[in-house]
Specification:
Length: 170
């Protein structure tokens, strides 16, 4: 029996087959990791909501910043009621307080303005803030309505649970 040395071409072919095997395994792992990342990002809002509820149930508390209070100004009480009712009908807030006239001073077009406005306190989930802002801007009588949000760091657990029930998740 004679030993024949493999030709250079045969060596290259064997090497290509080995590298192709490693390459396909690497590609499969990379695709799997990418799919998992896409899935996690797309499910994040739902997973966050489930995590908040589990945290609340387990610890008897709530996650700070999960709820927010928005300040919103309106030119008249009737406009405030209309805006408040529209927000509530869309279920974007759990509760809205409409406070009587407030005196407001602000800069507008380079001058200090004095006005009477109606202040609204909108209580909602932090995840709903942008929806409230977009919705209010679509029909608010002001060209640039004031909408400021503040996260709720502490509060009544039963009230927070009620807010979670009153404002549905996306």
């Amino acid at each position: 029996m004679t030993f024949v040395a493999p030709t250079r071409m045969e060596c290259l072919l064997r090497r290509c087959h080995q590298e192709a095997g490693v390459s396909s395994v690497f590609r499969s792992v990379l695709i799997t990791v990418c799919l998992i990342l896409v899935l996690c990002v797309s499910l994040y809002p739902g997973l966050w909501s489930i995590g908040v509820r589990l945290h609340s149930a387990w610890t008897g508390s709530f996650v700070p910043g999960h709820h927010s209070v928005l300040l919103l100004n309106s030119p008249t009480e009737q406009a405030a009621k209309d805006i408040g009712r529209a927000i509530m009908e869309k279920r974007l807030a759990a509760s809205i307080n409409i406070l009587s006239k407030t005196s407001t001073m602000y800069y507008w077009k380079g001058e200090i303005q004095d006005a009477s406005e109606i202040l609204m306190l909108v209580k909602t989930k932090t995840s709903q803030i942008q929806k409230v802002i977009d919705y209010v801007r679509s029909f608010h009588p002001y060209a640039n309505p004031e909408v400021l949000s503040f996260p709720v760091e502490e509060g009544s657990l039963s009230y927070m649970k009620w807010m979670d029930e009153a404002v549905p998740d996306d």
